[in-house]
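Problem 12. The chain below contains 181 residues. Write out its predicted structure in token notation.
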Amino acid sequence: MEMEKRTPVLDGQGINTVLIRLAREIIQRHTNLEPLVIIGVHTRGVHLARRLADTIAEINGRAIPTGDIDITLYRDDWTKIGYSPVVQSTQIGFPIDDKTVILVDDVLFTGRTTRAALDALTDFGRPAKVELAVLVDREGMRELPIQADYVGMFVKTDKAEMVNVLLSETDGEDAVVVNTP
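Solution.
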């Protein structure tokens, strides 16, 4: 049996450094943080969104409303996932109408998760603007015309490789690794 090669790309300190940079970019672009809300895409995007909001609050002193969204039933491939997809809760405890929503996910790959998240958001209102923040952009792998506004890092991979973001909240450690078959 062949072993999968695991290549570390970013450690916990690197993830923290990236989140600080992303927070500063958001603050710089949005001089008025009042209309800003942050929504994380389940699962790891939720934890990254909370960390990003906490980092913005530490830097700027202003708390940003944070929520999370499950996109399972909005995916265009959900029937391929299985007959009983696991649907998680969506928690958006604030209006998003006329707000700037920063949608947060761990990895931008084909763009299909982001498309599903945009579809899901419309069930909760009509934001003035939606921006996308990702920890990792798998450069050159897009199937849809979607691009992140805030990127932690670009990683070049081939389609057979997997980019995994590990977070202490779900995985017991913080790291970004590329798994090669």
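Discussion. The CA atoms of residues 132 and 138 lie 14 Å apart. Students who got a different answer should revisit the alignment rule from Section 12.3.
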